[in-house]
Specification:
Layout lengths: L3 H13 L5 H13 L3 H6 L1 E7 L9 H14 L5 E8 L2 E7 L5 E9 L2 E9 L1 H4 L2
Parallel strand pairs: 1-5
Antiparallel strand pairs: 2-3, 3-4, 4-5
Helix pairs in contact: 1-2
């Protein structure tokens, strides 16, 4: 699944390491999400990261892993990136899933891990 550019980018990530820039981290996150790898996704978050998906301000790896594992249990999900931008430590990516439900992700990267995440998924059409 995913665009040819995403597949190509994700194929080289293991060789160069995802930590070479915020945009590469977003691509690695999308690849892990598309493959429902909650443990891998959780490894991208710094201790005490803030995510709008958690009801608490600070998340640890266990909270993030559980949150994504629960989400993956509800439905099969994947991301097809359409645009990806980077402004210093702030990467932004948006796209859709195969059924065209819109999503976007804004991250703040510090010390090579996510310290803040804000995301959007068109849940009204996703859950209908």
């Amino acid at each position: 699944m995913g665009s040819p550019l995403l597949r190509e980018t994700c194929n080289i990530l293991p060789r160069i390491g995802w930590h070479h820039g915020p945009r590469e981290l977003v691509h690695a996150w999308v690849e892990a999400f598309t493959n429902a790898r909650s443990k891998k996704i959780a490894s991208f978050y710094s201790e005490g990261a803030t995510t709008t998906k958690c009801l608490v301000a600070c998340c640890d790896e266990t909270v993030v892993r559980t949150m994504f594992a629960n989400a993956f249990a509800l439905a099969e999900m994947s991301c097809i990136p359409e645009h990806s931008f980077e402004d210093g430590e702030w990467p932004y990516s948006n796209g859709a899933d195969p059924v065209r439900h819109a999503w976007m992700r804004v991250l703040h990267i510090g010390t090579e891990k996510i310290v803040f995440q804000r995301g959007y998924l068109d849940k009204l059409t996703f859950l209908s």
